[in-house]
Amino acid sequence: MGGDFPRGRSAIAGLATFGVGEAPGFSSMELTARAAVLAVADAGLRIDAIDALFICQPDDFFAGLSFAEYLGLSPRFTDNNRTGGSAFMSHVITAVMMLEAGYIDTALIAYGSNQRTNGGKLATSIKPNSWDAPYRPLFPLSSYALAAARHMHEYGTTREQLAEVAVAARQWANTNPEAFAKGPLSIEECLASRIISSPISVRDCCLVTDGAAAIVLTRTDRARDMPRPAVPVLGAAAATWWNSIAQASDVTTTAAAESGPRAYHAAGIGPADVQTVQLYDAFTINTVLFLEDLGFCPKGEGGRFVSGGTIAPGGTLPVNTNGGGMSYCHPGMYGLFAIVEAARQIRGEAANQLGKIDVALAHGNGGTLSSQATVILGSADTL
């Protein structure tokens, strides 16, 4: 059982990205701080107005403490949730509840990584658990390959359909000046790319980039008086079903099948009301699984759903309109960038602005399809 979500009573008042792509000479914390300072300024605030910090850095186990020290703050609350790329959606849930309770007044959620210019690897060493290790999986890639192979076996999903995800992401990125990967990309090129962990190829994998993002949340009645359009949080929910995918009873269904419906219920809407979807697309199979689990198509229909340009520019469901983790950026974890893009669409300032957007969904994934979290954002007209 759970209490009611405070629909629309907290809002994103500021946001920013920094160093997306390659940012030589910056540490992960320096990138994070730059994005944070820009987001606070975007909200029309001074840094000392922040009284809660939420962060999950790739290379600092005590990032919450380091971030406070770096910014010169003494926050009332610091959270360093480490559920992977879904952590930032969970940060939103915690911040909203704390704002509603009156425990804090202004929350800063931030993330940054110099993964690309630091040699392409995260400093944090994550290894398969002892039950998986004898099979020598590639972490985390082999887990996603397992999900993709099973989806193909059960539902007839094809590599061509997975390639549609990568091609659509590239089409969005080609018209986003901030996106890292640009240029033509065809289904044929994806199919011809090197297999890393069958059936996952190079083109089924996200980028390795630098980059940072940050958002500022406060109560909506206060955010309305700030310089930028307030983006209320209509609903949000998180769910964790396993750590290792080897413990899953069904590798073709993720905990998004739980977080999504609970987020919809909190927001008082359904999938048909969502105008744009920003998904954590670490691998092409992610997009297929999450579109199914979040109710945009029936289970098993994801491959067919993404075919024919449905999620590409001009399609009926715009997905990852910045280019996503496949072509926009992926500095270790992508979750916060999905939230920023959803908020930019509602504020009317996205690089690939879709027109007037009133409802946008951002979904984060952590671990090996382990932790799922869904955030639904709205415009002032949804309140």
From TrEMBL:
Question: What are the GO MF terms of this UniProt record?
Answer: acetyl-CoA C-acyltransferase activity
- Domain of life here? Bacteria
* InterPro entries, per the entry: Thiolase, Thiolase-like, Thiolase_C_2
Q: What region holds the Thiolase C-terminal domain?
A: 238-378
Return the NCBIfam families for the record: PRK06158.1
- Name it: Thiolase
Native source species: Sphingobium phenoxybenzoativorans
Q: What taxonomic classification does the UniProt entry list for its organism?
A: Bacteria, Pseudomonadati, Pseudomonadota, Alphaproteobacteria, Sphingomonadales
